[in-house]
Amino acid sequence: MLVLTRKPGERILIGDNIVVTILDSRGDGVRIGIDAPRGITIQREEVLRAVTDANLAAAGAQPEGADLIKAALGLLPAAPAAPATAPPVVLPAAVSGFLADQVGTDHAATLAHFADDATVVDDGKSFAGRDAILGWLSREASEFTFTSTTVKTEKHDDARYTVTNHLEGNFPGGTADLRFQFFVSGGRIASLTIQP
């Protein structure tokens, strides 16, 4: 709150179009004049509160109705601003390429997204190196047919990403939500852990 001392005849400017003029000072009261555009509502607080309270009592308003009326009259503090929406996560080409290729049958194209010494952990089993990963793609990863829909993407830092996919297919249970945790190095997937 800004506190000012003014003498009769002196003015206070609010913005570019509101002028408050001190007209007179008598005892414990001060008379002021306010010059403002027509669209600006000027009300004495005690009168506004009395009218609001009388209206609420007459209407038998419920507390939530009272809050609506008070909010409309500007008597409630402003609601906090909504949190900013995070920008969408841009996945590295190797990760987005793997996710697009994993549902296909071209295992060589899928394998190209992995580093030579990459590791994959799927269903508790570990596959290290490109040959083992190709075997995983040919057997475990191709055992069932499925569709995959990305539900959530997270970027933990420039090398670590988690993608949660909803899978539907002919595997036991028919649906699953899996988290694909990627570590990317040198533009290729260095490790991938898949878990519920």
From TrEMBL:
<keyword id="KW-0694">RNA-binding</keyword>
<keyword id="KW-0678">Repressor</keyword>
<keyword id="KW-1005">Bacterial flagellum biogenesis</keyword>
<dbReference type="Pfam" id="PF02599">
    <property type="entry name" value="CsrA"/>
</dbReference>
<comment type="subunit">
    <text>Homodimer; the beta-strands of each monomer intercalate to form a hydrophobic core, while the alpha-helices form wings that extend away from the core.</text>
</comment>
<protein>
    <recommendedName>
        <fullName>Translational regulator CsrA</fullName>
    </recommendedName>
</protein>
<comment type="function">
    <text>A translational regulator that binds mRNA to regulate translation initiation and/or mRNA stability. Usually binds in the 5'-UTR at or near the Shine-Dalgarno sequence preventing ribosome-binding, thus repressing translation. Its main target seems to be the major flagellin gene, while its function is anatagonized by FliW.</text>
</comment>
<keyword id="KW-0963">Cytoplasm</keyword>
<keyword id="KW-0810">Translation regulation</keyword>
<dbReference type="InterPro" id="IPR036107">
    <property type="entry name" value="CsrA_sf"/>
</dbReference>
<dbReference type="InterPro" id="IPR003751">
    <property type="entry name" value="CsrA"/>
</dbReference>
<comment type="similarity">
    <text>Belongs to the CsrA/RsmA family.</text>
</comment>
<dbReference type="InterPro" id="IPR032710">
    <property type="entry name" value="NTF2-like_dom_sf"/>
</dbReference>
